[in-house]
Amino acid sequence: MEKNVSKTDTGVKINFMGAVEKQNIVTMVQNCSTGKCECMSDAQKAKITDMQVSGEDGDVELKIDGDIKVEDIKAAMAKSKVLNKEECC
Description:
Blueprint (H helix, E strand, L loop, with lengths): L1 E6 L3 E7 L4 H12 L8 H5 L1 E9 L2 E8 L3 H10 L1 H8 L1
Antiparallel strand pairs: 1-2, 2-4, 3-4
């Protein structure tokens, strides 16, 4: 899976390409929204105002609005159990 993270006017955008299922990204967003993830601190989560998933399997876009940095998102993705389970074992 290829991941491109970029800064936008309202936050950060992540494009997932290749071996990615849209449902996995939706699950990751739901886990983050409900506090079920450990990929970022509560202070970082509080900076996020909205998350929107679009696209389809193989080409998924995640827009994250808020006062969040590209570096924070890259670090969170590295810790994400949803994203890394495919690449793990």
